[in-house]
Design brief:
This protein has 7 helices and 3 strands; from the N terminus they run H-H-E-E-E-H-H-H-H-H. It is mostly helical and 232 residues long. Helix 4 crosses helix 7. The chain is elongated and about 65 Å long. The structure holds zinc ion.
């Protein structure tokens, strides 16, 4: 039993953390850059959201402000596009891009887009798996014999539910962004030069989800390395 300080697989976690940090720094800087650029339409994030929803005939979805920054999300249980304060009342390209992206999720929900439904069904499973996976592995490492192997492998399987959730999130996010850009263009809300700014913001945001998958893959590799080392 020597799990601990000199564990060389820890480097995998560090690499994952660095990838995630770079991705989140990039989304913040892209968001800030285009926060300083106002769109010619003069509409706020909230107004753009209302227009896009109406243009798709979606009248049962509300638009509400939420505290924090980059906390924007669509809540399917209350059918609400929640926009962070810097997005809700701002007329910047960043605000419009993010508001349109969240409307993309509302559109997915309205038409029963399958990956979104699958993702929602995975939420409780992934929460359960994410909470229990590492504790099970750690307890397994402290024990010996069969029970140890069972716990470690159960932990790894539970961790895979988190990874699966993150992988299913990718098409949902990419699709919401492509809907957002198509709607902004189709409704004449952004000029072509403005669209490329919105695209930059949304692409940076999408990369944070890719980084999340990469970080989890590295964690999975580490778990497998730990399990494998125990077997010998
Ligand atoms: Zn999204």
């Amino acid at each position: 039993m020597y799990y601990g300080y000199y564990d060389p697989t820890y480097i995998l976690i560090l690499v994952g953390a660095v990838i995630s940090m770079i991705a989140s720094a990039r989304v913040k800087s892209a968001f800030q850059k285009y926060s300083r650029t106002g769109a010619m339409n003069g509409l706020t994030g909230a107004q753009v959201a209302q227009r896009l929803l109406a243009s798709k005939g979606i009248y049962d979805v509300g638009v509400a402000p939420v505290a924090g920054s980059l906390t924007d999300h669509y809540d399917p249980s209350t059918r609400t596009v929640n926009l962070s304060e810097p997005v809700y009342g701002s007329t910047s390209l960043s605000a419009i891009a993010v508001a349109a992206h969240e409307c993309g999720h509302a559109m997915q929900h309205a038409e029963g887009y399958a990956p979104l439904a699958f993702r929602s069904s995975l939420v409780p499973v992934a929460n359960f798996g994410g909470t229990l996976s590492w504790p099970l592995v750690l307890v397994g490492l402290f024990l010996n014999g069969n029970i140890s192997n069972i716990l470690i492998h159960a932990g790894i399987i539970l961790f895979c539910t988190v990874l699966l959730f993150q992988i299913v999130t990718l098409p949902v996010e990419f699709n919401a962004s492509s809907r957002a850009l198509a709607q902004l263009e189709g409704n004449g809300l952004l000029a072509s030069g403005e669209l490329s700014g919105a695209k930059t913001v949304l692409r940076a945001a999408a990369l944070t989800y890719v980084a999340g998958v990469a970080a989890s893959l590295l964690q999975l590799l580490r778990l497998l390395a730990i399990a494998n080392r125990r077997r010998r």
